[in-house]
Structure formats: C-alpha cells, structure tokens
Automatic annotation (TrEMBL), chain A:
Entries under PROSITE patterns matching the protein: ETF_ALPHA
Keywords: Electron transport, FAD, Flavoprotein, Transport
Organism domain of life: Bacteria
Range of residues in the leader sequence: none
Electron transfer flavoprotein alpha/beta-subunit N-terminal domain mapped to chain residues: 3-183
PANTHER family reported in the protein's UniProt record: ELECTRON TRANSFER FLAVOPROTEIN ALPHA, ELECTRON TRANSFER FLAVOPROTEIN SUBUNIT ALPHA, MITOCHONDRIAL
Protein name, as recorded: Electron transfer flavoprotein subunit alpha/FixB family protein
UniProt record similarity statement: Belongs to the ETF alpha-subunit/FixB family.
Pfam family, one: ETF
Database matches in InterPro entries: DHS-like_NAD/FAD-binding_dom, ETF_a/b_N, ETF_a/FixB, ETF_alpha_N, ETF_asu_C, ETF_asu_C_CS, Rossmann-like_a/b/a_fold
Gene3D superfamilies reported in the protein's UniProt record: HUPs, TPP-binding domain
From TrEMBL, chain B:
Alphabetical UniProt keywords: Electron transport, Transport
Residues that span the membrane, as ranges: none
Similarity comment: family membership: Belongs to the ETF beta-subunit/FixA family.
Protein name: Electron transfer flavoprotein subunit beta
Originating organism: Aromatoleum anaerobium
Taxonomic path: Bacteria, Pseudomonadati, Pseudomonadota, Betaproteobacteria, Rhodocyclales
Gene3D superfamilies: HUPs
The Electron transfer flavoprotein alpha/beta-subunit N-terminal domain, residue ranges: 23-211
Length: 314, 249
C-alpha cells in the first residue's frame, strides 16, 4: 500500500491542512509519500521531510508550479500516481484540496470522495452530507482512492520525521490558467481553522466598523481567531475568508463564541464540532442556543464589552 | 458565445432532512425541492453575460429524473434561453454527471460552463472540476467575480487565505461561489414565458457514457446530537463557567 499526500504550500511553508492529511494517510497503514510541487520550494520540501510518518518526499521544481495552478498540478500528480502505482491520494479539505482532488480523480477515471471524517479501512469512509445533518458511510473499490479529508477530524501530524528526498522531473507546462494576483488577508491572529479559540460575529454586529469595535478586543483578550457568518461576509463587514459554515470554513476549536449569529444549519455545519460553544444573542429562541453549552441572552453591544472587561480580571 | 449552466434539483436549503428509519438514505418523500442555490447564482451570472451582450445563448442542463424539468423551468424563468434534460432514473454520482455533461458539451460546444461550487445535498464540490478535467479545459472554482474578455476569462476566486484572480483561455469551467451575484426572482410573466421555451429531453443512455455509480453508500446516520446546555444569567456567570466548569480559558 502506497499513499500519496499532495502538499499545499506557498513554496516556503506547508499549510496546516497538509499535516492533517498526512495523519489521515497514515491510517491506510502503508508507506506515506508527500508530493511538493513548487518553485524554489526547498523550505517546504524539507519541512515535509521532517514530518513524522512521512517515508519519502517527492519534489518537482519548476516555474510553472510556483503558483499552484491546478491544471499543471493535477497532471503532474496523475502521472505520478499511474507511474508509481500509488493506491491512494489524499489532500486536505481546504480550498486547495477541493479544487485539485476531483480534477485529479477525473484524470485517473476514479470517483473522488470529499471531506472524509473517518477512515474505517482503505476504501471505507464516513463523510458528512446535507450540511452535516447526515453522516454517510461510503465504500469504494476504485483502484486508486482519491480523497480530501476534513482537517478538523484528523490530528496534525507532528514534527520529528526523517524522510528521504527524491526529485522528480517536472512535466511540461500546460499553459492553461495564469495567476493575475492574490489578495490574501494578513493577520497577526491565529489561523481560523487551526485556532484553539474562535470568536465569530454575525449580522447582529450591524456593520464592519461595529464588528471590529466589538469583536477585535474579544479576540485580542482570548488570543482567538476571528470568524463570521455568511450574512456578515455578504454584508461586507469582513472578508470572505472569515466565513464559517457548510460552504465556508470548518472549525472545531476548544471554544467557539457566536456573537449575533442566529444559528442557521449552514452555519452550524461549520462549527458544531467545537468542544465548547458559547452564544450571545438577544433572541432567546435563536436556534444557536440549541447547540450552545452556555447561552447568554442579551444585547451583544453591552454583553461583549462587559465580557472583555471581565476577562481582564483574573 | 454559448454558456452551459448545469443545474441540480436538490432538497430546499431550509429543510432539515431526516434519515430513513432503515438508514438506507434520506427521507425525500413530501420534502420541498428546489434548484441548488449555487446553480441559481450560475444561471444569474450567465443571464447577466447575455444581457451585457457577451453571451449569445444560455443553455441550462440537468441530469436526473423527469421531475428535474421543474428545475430547468426555474432556470428558464430566470432567463436561460433553452434547456436540456439528460434523463435517467439511475443514481448519479459526480463522476457520472461529469461524463454526461461532457457529452452535452461536445454536442453544444459552449465556450463557458458555469457550475455551482457544490450541491447542497451531497456537498461533493466535485462536478465542475471533473468536467474541466474530462474536457481538458482550465478551471476556476469558487468564483466571486467573472470578467469575459474576448477569448479569455478573468475570475476572482474565494480561497482560504482570501482572494485569488486567475486568467484562463476559453473554453473553461467556472464554479460559482455565494458572492458572485444575487440571483433575481423569476417574475410571473417570465415564469409563464418559460413554459414555452424549448426543453429537450435526451435519454442518458443515448449519450453512450458509463454512469454506473462507483461508490456505495452503505449506511446513513444522524450525527450525535449536541445537547443544549444552559443559559447563564449574566457575563459574570459565563466567565465563571468557562473558567471553572469548561476550563477552556
Ligand atoms: C447555499 C447556502 C450556503 C450557505 N452557507 C453558509 C455558510 O457557510 N455559513 C453561514 O454562516 N451561513 C451560510 N448560509 C446562510 C445561512 O442560511 C444564514 O442566512 C446565515 O448563517 C445567517 O447569518 P447570521 O446568523 O449572521 O444572520 P441572521 O440569521 O440575520 O441572525 C442575526 C442574529 O443576530 C441577533 N442579533 C441582532 N442584533 C443583536 C444584538 N444587538 N445583540 C445580540 N444579538 C443580536 C439576532 O437575534 C439574530 O439571531 C448559506 C445559505 C445558503 C442558501
Ligand atoms: N445531476 C446534475 N445535473 C446537473 N448539474 C449537476 C448535477 N449534479 C451536479 N451538478 C452541477 O455540479 C455542481 C456541483 O455539484 P457537486 O459536485 O455534486 O457538489 C452543481 O452545483 C451543479 O452545477
């Protein structure tokens, strides 16, 4: 059994989702190899090589892998899987993995499995459907298993490995898509999907200005990542990458604080596996209270500043 | 420029589905169905491109049972010019849908296919990427902005870290994300007009592709329910609970 994990990285650092995918790959019980395709990506390659449980890192270095454009990456991975007889390919269930894995699977003519949350055996998985309201066990006889894994369901693989490194020759540049630019949010805060505490704001915050005024001190105080409901993103309070939910990010922190969020099923889909959920909402019947461990009914504009002040007192 | 918009009939997003008592699937009888919300966004985008004089024709296509004609009529009422039902009562998985859509794309020769980012029933997020691979075309998934300029398309994508803009040659596949646009409501006159627009039915078998499911869905279960906790009286009690009961801060 040979399992390939496709690394997500920016040529310097591995994305956290890759570490989750590596630990999921270990559950196949075979040899885990990691593909790092990039340009001047030696740092990412050596980081991958130092992850526990990785036997070999395959690196492909070329200008046309720099921007992680999916057409070139999928072609490279498909060739590799065929030539080297991999039995399974995994990627993290991030926007990177979701973009890539189905394309790769189609090139191999196999059915991909998305967002796997548990691996009973190679080819036997559980995944959520209908916004997480149903868990389905899936069985696949495909000769090459292609899956994305939900990052919150698998621990991040730890450092401490010592993999062999092997350089691959790059494939030709397909020259399909071209990167025009990226506007990536910069933040000093922990990354949303990996944070121990997440505080999320919804439409109840009423504006971007109020969102920042109310939510940032709370996040600062708790060392938390900031998230949001779709309504808050659609209304322009915060950027798109804050969205938690069925079609946004999936988070499962130790503590999730939902502020001015009603608790639509699409939002719950992204956070209901959090260990402890706190909701602050002025509507005592808001559905968010049905999943909250601690509910506080009241005006968020009073409650949150009071909470920030209270947390300052030991 | 022709645009093909695949639309899927799914359980309405407001419905909280239930698992059948024998765990064989999800209870669908009597459940409200609707066009997949992302597909509504795709139709809207395609119709806007037509209104802007960039697209010449918008074709909605759905793969599934005869009832999917309802979904296609919704797309027609929003402004699609004509519709195609690839009819089959068989279970369809994304790889099979991708193959059927490929066969339709080969017949229709669109310059652009706009899929939804994901169907809210299977939450697969696969079909657009699969179709792009099968066609050998470029793909731009999770689009929040789309600009067509002669033979190319510029797409802003919602990615985990923020936004990314790509340029691709046409033909290409785009998948729509929530913030691409706000779909219009179909007006009554347009719903009436849609009834007269052409809707072709092609039996899936006529397209000569293998649509047999590759994955078996063994068992459906409801996830363990979270039990509702307690309401706290005030902020002080909340802090006390978080510190001493939950011990998370
Ligand atoms: C296809 C599809 C995908 C979707 N994907 C997602 C997703 O990924 N993530 C997501 O979040 N949503 C998603 N949604 C949207 C979802 O259905 C809800 O519309 C959305 O989550 C609502 O956001 P909200 O709770 O902030 O707003 P609302 O539902 O409007 O709730 C606002 C809440 O704030 C409270 N409030 C207002 N003022 C105050 C105050 N002063 N003090 C205290 N409380 C106050 C109100 O009581 C209310 O409960 C999706 C919808 C569709 C159709
Ligand atoms: N049966 C179908 N008929 C038409 N389009 C479909 C069908 N299934 C999926 N699609 C398209 O593919 C998108 C993604 O679906 P999925 O890959 O199932 O999440 C949908 O938003 C539709 O645009």
């Amino acid at each position: 059994m040979k399992v390939l994990v496709i690394a997500e990285h920016d040529n310097h650092k591995l994305a956290a989702a890759t570490l989750n995918a590596i630990s999921a790959a270990q559950q196949f019980g075979g040899e885990v190899q990691v593909l790092v395709a990039g340009c001047d990506c030696a740092a990412a390659v050596s980081e991958a090589g130092a992850v526990q449980g990785v036997a070999q890192v395959l690196s492909a270095n070329a200008a046309h892998y720099r921007d992680q454009l999916v057409e070139n990456l999928a072609a490279l991975a498909a060739g590799l899987v065929r030539d080297e007889g991999f039995n399974a390919v995994l990627a993290g269930g991030s926007s990177f993995g979701k973009n890539l894995a189905p394309r790769l699977a189609a090139l191999l003519d196999v059915a991909p499995v998305s967002d796997v949350v548990s691996i009973a055996a190679p080819g036997r998985y559980v995944r959520p459907i209908y916004a997480g309201n149903v868990m389905v066990s899936v069985e696949s006889d495909e000769p090459m298993q292609v899956l994305t894994v939900r990052t919150t369901a698998f621990e991040a693989a730890a450092a401490g490995g010592n993999a062999t490194l092997r350089e691959l020759s790059p494939r030709e540049d397909l020259g399909v898509s071209r990167l025009v630019g990226r506007e990536l949010s910069k933040s000093e805060r922990p990354e949303l999907t990996a944070a121990r505490i997440v505080v999320s704001g919804g439409r109840g915050l009423s504006s971007g200005e109020k969102y920042r005024e109310v939510m940032e001190p709370l996040a600062d105080r708790l060392g938390a990542a900031l998230g949001a409901s779709r309504a808050a993103v659609d209304a322009g309070f915060v950027p798109n990458d804050y969205q938690v939910g069925q079609t946004g990010k999936i988070v499962a922190p130790d503590l999730y604080v939902a502020v001015g969020i009603s608790g639509a099923i699409q939002h719950l889909a992204g956070m209901k596996d959090s260990k402890v959920i706190v909701a602050i909402n002025k509507d005592p019947d808001a559905p968010i209270f049905q999943v909250s461990d601690y509910g506080l009914v009241g005006d968020l504009f009073e409650m949150v500043p009071e909470l920030v002040a209270g947390l300052a007192v030991q | 420029m022709k645009i093909l918009v695949p639309v899927k009939r799914v359980v309405d997003y407001n419905v909280k589905v239930r698992v059948k008592s024998d765990h064989s699937g999800v209870e669908l009888s009597g459940v409200k169905m609707a066009i997949n919300p992302f597909d509504e966004i795709s139709v809207e985008e395609a119709v806007r491109l037509k209104e802007a004089g960039i697209a010449s024709e918008v074709i909605a296509v759905s793969c599934g049972a005869a009832v999917c004609q309802e979904t296609l009529r919704t797309a027609l009422a929003m402004g699609a010019d004509r519709a195609i039902l690839v009819e089959t009562s068989a279970e369809l998985q994304p790889l099979a849908v991708g193959k059927l859509l490929k066969a339709v794309a080969e017949r229709e020769q669109p310059q652009l296919v706009i899929c939804g980012k994901q169907a809210i029933d299977d939450d697969a997020n696969q079909t657009g990427q699969i179709l792009a691979a099968l066609m050998g075309w470029g793909q731009a998934t999770f689009a929040s902005k789309l600009l067509v300029d002669k033979g190319t398309i510029r797409v802003t994508r919602e990615v985990d870290g923020g936004l990314e803009t790509l340029e691709l040659p046409l033909p290409a596949v785009v998948t729509s994300d929530l913030r691409l646009n706000e779909p219009r409501y179909a007006t009554l006159p347009n719903i009436m007009k849609a009834k007269k627009k052409p809707l072709d039915v092609i039996p899936a078998a006529d397209l000569g592709v293998d649509i047999a499911p590759r994955l078996r869905h063994l068992q459906h279960a409801e996830p363990p329910a979270r039990k509702a906790g307690v309401k706290v009286a005030d902020v002080a009690e909340l802090i006390e609970k978080l510190r001493h009961d939950a011990k998370v801060i």
